[in-house]
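Why do we bother with a discrete structure alphabet at all? Because it lets us treat a fold like text: something you can write down, compare, and reason about line by line. To make this less abstract, here is a complete entry for Phosphatidylglycerophosphatase C. Read it the way you would read a sentence in a foreign language you are learning: slowly, and without expecting to understand everything at once.
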Amino acid sequence: MTDRVIVAFDFDGTITTSDSFRAFMLDAAGATRFALAALRCLPWLIGIAPGWSQRGPTKARFLLAALGAVRREKLEAAAQRFAQTRLLDLLRPEMLVRIREHQALGHEVVLVSASPSVYLRQWAPTVGIETVLASELEWRDGVYTGHLAGRNCWGPEKVARLRAWWGEKAPATLYAYGDSRGDREMAQLANYAWIRGEAPLPPLLPTGGFGATA
């Protein structure tokens, strides 16, 4: 039986204090273009909470409205700048400590987020996270199309991404850290789950510790 321990962290609101996508778009587009894009996308943005519009397509639509058909290298340069500057102000120090504690025990830490991977993949290696499962932007000939490539990595899709990633090497123990409705399914899959504001942090077990196969 495998003794693999996987730790799945949501990003926004869990590792960060606020929404990183909003901060990234403000940084990449500037306040004026951000505001104009918000006005153009207002019907879809206000429809997210009551379920009238879908989160993923709305996020993709907003990025297109703010930045246009941006080239991949330009957006990746903006993502790298954001990951090295503005994003650092959003991080929760106590959650960075928790990540390091898991890593010190030999656990595999993976980031599972609905935010675009374009800046998460810039940030993750700086804290020793090798795997990022996130929403992917669609590109055609190196230009952003205004759509996501695949599903928005939220809710049930987080579980689907995790299962596809580990394949036949399912963990003996799965930890999951989240903060919202979009993390519920991932929390239900885990042996040890934590949703911000609902319970104390779970106990830390060494690799080879006690837990059922997820």
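What the structure line is telling us, in plain words: The longest strand covers residues 108-116. The chain is about 40% helix and 20% strand.
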